[in-house]
């Protein structure tokens, strides 16, 4: 007993007890803290979805149905994903105007980014779909603009023009200009295929491929980019170039012909 009592009064006994207490506290925190954090995250997500549902009921349900199932005035939103919502609402295409043309144009959006995130969370809760991309996915780091140019010319130039200036389609529809469009929205458009555009999921166009395409568009539409061929004529391709050649080229030939004829006639008189 005397030996046990001496050990308890050992100078290091207090330090040992303190270390054991810290170890127990750390172990208990490791066991219970993750569950509390997960529960807090789940609660926050539920609140975000609930707020998104309120916004949806006011601004979207009249066309897309109370549960996103779609109506005769708007398609179903089940399974379109958060990326489609972020693109359509951030670019002002949704909510659409009551009267519009062959397709919904881009306009100023009426929601804040926080409200768009809430709407996207609610729509995503209706069915699995593409998520909003991160900056790492569409950022310029590791992108190959030359490869992106090749991909763009093979998959996109037929509608958007080889420099992304846009172009006309059938029945009054058009491919919009990509100049000044945020990289995030270009990525989302490729991922979801809005309106007349086909979708390019990762199985068709990989995440790296999308990053490369965005890098190419940033390169050709940058503020300091100069046309290597001189005057770009709007970058619209053979139509504007052909018109320019027809008007000014043929006009110059006619002018030369008239000048030669006038000189010939004058020489004969003299």
Descriptive report:
GO terms for molecular function: heme binding; iron ion binding; quinol-cytochrome-c reductase activity. This is Cytochrome bc1 complex cytochrome c subunit. Keywords: Cell membrane, Electron transport, Heme, Iron, Membrane, Metal-binding, Repeat, Respiratory chain, Signal, Translocase, Transmembrane, Transmembrane helix, Transport. The chain is mainly α and 270 residues long. The chain has helices at residues 2-8, 13-59, 61-64, 81-90, 113-126, 135-138, 145-155, 157-160, 183-192, 207-220, 238-269, and strands spanning 167-168, 174-175. A two-stranded antiparallel ribbon has the order 1-2. Strand 1 and strand 2 form a beta hairpin. The longest helix has 47 residues, at 13-59.
């Amino acid at each position: 007993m005397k030996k046990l009592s001496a050990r308890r009064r050992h100078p290091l006994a207090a330090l040992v007890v303190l270390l054991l207490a810290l170890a127990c506290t750390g172990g208990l925190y490791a066991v219970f803290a993750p569950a509390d954090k997960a529960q807090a995250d789940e609660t926050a997500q539920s609140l975000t979805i609930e707020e998104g549902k309120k916004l949806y009921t006011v601004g979207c349900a009249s066309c897309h149905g109370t549960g996103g199932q779609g109506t005769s005035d708007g398609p179903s939103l089940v399974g379109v994903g958060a990326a489609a919502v972020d693109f359509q609402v951030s670019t002002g295409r949704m909510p659409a105007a009551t009267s519009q043309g062959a397709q919904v144009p881009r306009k100023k959006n009426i929601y804040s980014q926080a409200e768009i995130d809430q709407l996207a969370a609610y729509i995503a809760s209706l069915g699995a779909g593409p998520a909003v991309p991160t900056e790492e996915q569409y950022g310029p780091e590791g992108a190959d603009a030359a490869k992106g140019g090749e991909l763009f010319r093979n998959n996109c130039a037929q509608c958007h023009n080889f420099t992304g200036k846009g172009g006309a389609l059938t029945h009054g529809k058009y491919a919009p200009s990509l100049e000044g469009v945020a990289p995030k929205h270009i990525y989302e458009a490729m991922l979801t295929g809005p309106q007349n555009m086909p979708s390019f999921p990762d199985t068709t166009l990989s995440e790296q491929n999308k990053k490369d395409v965005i890098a190419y568009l940033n390169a050709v539409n940058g503020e300091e980019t100069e046309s290597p061929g001189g005057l770009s004529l709007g970058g619209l391709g053979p139509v504007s170039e052909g018109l320019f050649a027809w008007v000014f080229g043929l006009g110059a030939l006619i002018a030369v012909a008239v000048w030669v004829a006038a000189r010939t006639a004058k020489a004969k008189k003299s």
